[in-house]
Amino acid sequence: MRYFIVIQKNYSIMGIGNTKEEALQEVCEWTDYNNTNDIQYKESYNTANEGDFCLLQCTKDLYDYVCKGGQFYEVNNNIATKEQ
Questions:
Q1: How far apart are CA 79 and CA 49, in angstroms?
Q2: For residue 29, pLDDT beyond 90
Q3: What pLDDT does residue 62 have?
Q4: What distance in Å separates the CA atoms of residue 58 and residue 35, rounded to the nearest whole number?
Q5: Is the pLDDT of residue 84 over 90?
Q6: Mean pLDDT of the chain
Q7: Proportion of the chain in helix, strand, coil states, percent, rounded to 5
Q8: Phi, psi at residue 62, to the nearest 5°?
Q9: What is the rounded CA–CA span in Å between residue 72 and residue 81?
Q10: Residue 14 belongs to what H/E stretch?
């Protein structure tokens, strides 16, 4: 199974899910976006600017951690992981 996360670079985690669409849908819950098609995001953390939304794959450990309220992450090779 794959897991996805939307991070507002250098700010916070905005959504998480088992699919890209599920993660983007959570962004709609926390922002003024009404439709996931309206959300502009990057799929490369390294080329994103501060404040950009980044849609990335994440590890199961990070997924479980965020579902329990965790908020600390790191990104290596464009995959978000639980901060060590």
A1: 17
A2: yes
A3: 98
A4: 23
A5: no
A6: 96
A7: 25, 35, 40
A8: -70, -45
A9: 9
A10: strand 12-17
Q: Which two tokens stand for residue 13?
A: 């985690």
Query: How far apart (Å, rounded) are the C-alpha atoms in residues 49 and 36?
Result: 20
Percent of all residues in the chain with a pLDDT value above 70, rounded to a whole number? 100
pLDDT digits (tens, 9 = 90+) for 55-75: 999 999 999 999 999 999 999
Q: How many CB atoms lie within 10 A of CB 6?
A: 25
What token pair was written down for 58? 């994440």
Q: How far is CA 50 from each of CA 9, 41, 47, 59, rounded to the nearest angstrom?
A: 5, 12, 10, 22
Structure token pair of residue 57: 């794959």
CB 33 within 8 A of CB 15: no
pTM of the model: 0.94
